[in-house]
Specification:
Two copies of one chain form a homodimer. Helix content of chain A is 52%, strand content 12%. By secondary structure, chain A is α/β, with parallel strands linked by helices. The first copy, chain A, folds into two domains: 1-48; 50-264, P-loop containing nucleotide triphosphate hydrolases (Rossmann fold). Chain A has a seven-stranded parallel sheet with strand order 3-2-4-1-5-6-7, sandwiched between helices. In chain A, helix 1 (2-17) packs across helix 3 (36-45), helix 2 packs antiparallel against helix 6 (129-142) and helix 8 packs across helix 9 (205-217). At the A-B interface, helix 3, helix 7, helix 8, helix 11 and helix 12 of A face helix 3, helix 7, helix 8, helix 11 and helix 12 of B.
Chain lengths: 331, 331
């Protein structure tokens, strides 16, 4: 039995490594549900990873991220790279969240065998979104996609954690949004390796650049250099300059080029550690949800206010966690 | 010793119940760090909760949520209610994230002893934001604030979870944002009890209302009624109508009025259960982080790719979780 199971897991891993897109899509779905066989297959894929260049693209809804990603895919394809895309943006046409025109515009890449697009619904992941994203990146990396683009909405904590998994992160804003400065202030600037002012043919683009420069200066003299690039993604203007800026960041950060093994770089070491953290958090969350589901009595006592939720949490955790080396929190 | 500790916890709880704002602010800080004494004090406060009307206000950055919250505070104060505000919005002036003009405008409420404003940084909470918000609401509720307004950015999963803790949720959008429809589509419509088109003096307000009506119709005939209100928060226009719509929702949902005990209502039962879930998730996350911090060896093996992160997660969880009734995930 165990032998059969191991053979099945090995077969899935082999197919994915051979580039079987359908097997990969099924594995990603099974990983969403954390099926044990899927996790086992992922372990088998892991030694083949570490070659992809993982590029995060994040920013407010309406900043034109998807059009920019579309243009980036085109450039990377011209350079001969296969490109994987993970869209974690509920407003992205890749996620099916956009108006019809957008979706049709993107679909030209959907027929290109050198491009694999996977969208992750932000609903129903309940905290596991970051781990799901990491899993999909692992599969795409193992399949030999030299570039993996992760598109997120740069607002929630989830999205910031996901963007932090990327080796290089592009933060996109637009002129005249009114709140771009505050939104970027709120933690997003910390994760930006390259800043983009998209829709730069609009009024106020130069002002946005100046505002961003001012904010970058506030970081002090020892901060990492961050370039600012103006683009008009819909016409392709500035996209080559953006790629060059990303390339310069890659060189500065000592990241290996797309498609080359690079376990040595500090950023890739950090990514591997982040994957461990995601895996642990996600599995504990699942264990918690299972324990909660099994204790309808406890939930009822909390709902009827017979017990406070904090004492109930103590009771549940005591049953879940090991003894004295992990004292019950809050007791 | 234990007796001393219990007396100290009781003293903190007494002071907070007596309305000591400084003691409450310190308790909220200690709860952020989940200090055991603070959690113990929270348990003592819990029986005094269940009276506040918890109103969520959420929407995209730039929708004018803070100005609307400001106007709502004013109206609730005129009705004689004391108002607590929890700002979980990084772009909110309550959180110190806004431009100076906004901050000055809001500060008039800061000198009103009938208003308590607590902002929660979205950075550094790493998944515990939802639990932190619930804790602050509990403290404000116990202190006798009849209305507690929770202001969030309605984008990330964190924020959606927080908004779901409210008894009534107002989702704010503005005309001409271009992406309001998609953004609201992405799960936010599910949590809206009242929809607001703010800045309704702008062009396109009626179109936004029509778009929203169309989306509401898609929900089918058995969906809960959701009213749409046009406001210009900066002039106060439509704010009374908004309050009336919230009031009608409260009556429909059988929620008790502000300041009245109401443990019986289904929405309050749900809130109590949600608090249990938050408490359990948050504490498990802390247990995971402690366990990860203690295993530098394991993190190094993952970083150097001597072991894959999934197998490492198995190892760590086996040490953390109890035996066979909670089988190791992924094994």
């Amino acid at each position: 039995m165990t032998n059969d199971r191991e053979q099945a897991e090995a077969r899935v891993a082999e197919r994915v490594l051979a580039g079987d897109v359908r097997a990969a899509a099924r594995l990603m779905r099974d990983l969403d549900d954390q099926l044990p066989a899927a996790v086992a297959a992922l372990k088998r894929l892991y030694p083949s990873t570490g070659r992809a260049f993982v590029l995060g693209v994040t920013g407010n809804p309406g900043a034109g991220k998807s059009t920019l990603v579309d243009a980036l895919i085109e450039r990377f394809r011209k350079q001969g790279h296969r490109v994987g895309v993970v869209a974690v943006d509920p407003t992205s046409p890749f996620s099916g969240g956009a108006i019809l025109g957008d979706r049709i515009r993107m679909s030209r890449h959907a027929t290109d065998p050198g491009v694999f697009i996977r969208s992750l619904a932000t609903r129903g992941h309940m905290g596991g979104l970051s781990r799901s994203t990491a899993d999909v990146v692992t599969v795409l990396d193992a399949m030999g996609y030299e570039v993996v683009i992760v598109e997120t909405v740069g607002v929630g904590q989830d999205e910031i954690e996901i963007a932090a998994q990327a080796e290089a992160t592009v933060v996109v804003t637009v002129p005249g949004l009114g709140d771009e400065v505050q939104a970027i202030k709120a933690g997003i600037l910390e994760i930006a390796d390259v800043l983009v002012v998209n829709k730069a043919d609009r009024e106020g683009a130069d002002r946005s650049v100046r505002d961003l420069l001012g904010m970058l200066e506030l970081r002090g003299p020892h901060a990492q250099p961050v370039e600012i690039v103006k683009t008009v993604a819909s016409t392709g203007q500035g996209v080559d300059e953006l790629l060059q800026a990303v390339e310069r960041h890659r060189a500065r950060a000592l990241l290996p080029p797309p498609g080359r093994a690079g376990e040595g770089s500090p950023r890739r070491r950090k990514r591997a550690e982040a994957m461990l953290v995601e895996a642990v958090h996600d599995r504990l969350r699942r264990a918690a949800d299972e324990a909660l589901a099994a204790r309808a009595d406890l939930r009822e006592r909390v709902a009827s206010r017979a017990i406070d939720p904090y004492t109930a949490a103590d009771e549940l955790l005591a049953a879940l966690l090991h003894g004295p080396e992990h004292p019950r929190p809050g007791s």
